[in-house]
Design a protein that fits this description.
60s Ribosomal Protein L30, Chain: A; four-stranded mixed β-sheet; alpha+beta; single chain; 157 residues
Length: 157
């Protein structure tokens, strides 16, 4: 077989603002739904302002992590969706990076044409490796009387 290039010796650019990979220790893994910039009443905050929406979505992600005994330091992956132009992506990334610092989970930042709620510009998905002390809860379920179509701002309304 011909000489194959060794992947071990290939260098990666080290100036990226995230880690290239994370190893989840044995135990439970938490997969979050996309954290949206919704207030306590289910309304999208700050229509038209991706920076404020990024802060709100990140706070909502932190609440979900906390409910499961984890924090930003337990994130092993994030995906950030932004409906907007490249400048909006950069502004949102700066908010998320600052809000997770000093932790830098491997992340993907995507520009999309539309998100689920009217006026929504930002959504953040997270995967976390739960610490051993975290409660091992099942999937959270909506109460039987809650329907997405009935939520304020309605999903894809």
């Amino acid at each position: 077989m011909a000489d194959q290039p060794s992947h071990r010796n290939r260098r990666l650019f080290e100036g990226v603002p995230y880690h290239y990979a994370a190893v989840a220790p044995p135990g439970a893994i938490l997969f979050t739904a996309g954290a949206c910039p919704l207030d306590a009443s289910g309304k999208v905050v700050a229509p038209g302002d991706p920076v404020v929406q990024a802060k709100a979505a990140l706070e909502n992600l932190k609440v979900v992590l906390h409910r499961h005994g984890a924090g930003p330091e337990h994130l092993v992956r994030t995906t950030i969706y932004v409906a907007g132009d490249r400048d909006d992506l950069v502004r949102v990334w700066d908010v998320i990076a600052a809000g997770l610092a000093p932790h830098r989970p491997p992340s993907t930042l995507l520009g999309v044409s539309v998100l689920g709620y009217r006026d929504q510009l930002v959504e953040i998905e997270g995967i976390a490796a739960l610490p051993p002390s975290a409660p091992r809860a099942a999937v959270e379920e909506l109460p039987s009387d809650v329907h997405v179509a009935d939520m304020p701002g309605g999903l894809l309304e």
